[in-house]
Amino acid sequence: MSTAWKPSVTVAAIIERAGRYLLVEEQTRLGLKLNNPAGHLEPGETPAQGCAREALEECAHDFQPTAVVGIYLARSRKNSTGEDQTYLRMAFAGELGRHHPDRALDDGIERVLWMTLDEVRASAARHRSPLVLRCIEDHAAGVRHPLSLIYSDPGVLAPLTSGTGR
């Protein structure tokens, strides 16, 4: 029997201010890499809620998603094990809120950077995935979809009780 294919679901905040994009520099097995504030969707949250949480954890800013930039699929081989892995990323544009300078950043996040689009393009070899630049390019091109593009059943937020399985 083969193992079921289970892509990892991630959410990313595409944050632009005054012509610069917010990225995080994070420690990986391959050294320091650049990424959008992003991470795995967690149980009990909608994709927009997960995106706001990740932005707070990774860059110490409140973030309110207002639009979907895109839904992306990427595949790679995990360097440590050679395992085939697929990521489904939902990227959001939104409003950057209050900065929390005393808040510790997530483990592995070294610093937050503000980069121009040209700087982001020039640093592509340092990106954690090809989706970093693709999401920013789409944002810069004005791609925006309503948040309603991604429907979350109310049961996502409710405690799981017996008899709710399918």
TrEMBL record:
One of its GO terms (molecular function) is hydrolase activity. The keyword Phosphoprotein does not apply. Monomer. Belongs to the Nudix hydrolase family. NudJ subfamily. It comes from Ramlibacter aquaticus. The gene is nudJ. Transmembrane segments: none annotated. This is Phosphatase NudJ. Its cofactor is Mg(2+). PROSITE patterns: NUDIX. Keywords: Hydrolase, Magnesium. InterPro entries: NUDIX_hydrolase-like_dom_sf, NUDIX_hydrolase_dom, NudJ. CDD domains: NUDIX_Hydrolase (cd03675). The lineage of its organism: Bacteria, Pseudomonadati, Pseudomonadota, Betaproteobacteria, Burkholderiales. It comes from the Bacteria. Residues 4-137 form the Nudix hydrolase domain. It is an enzyme of class 3 (hydrolase).
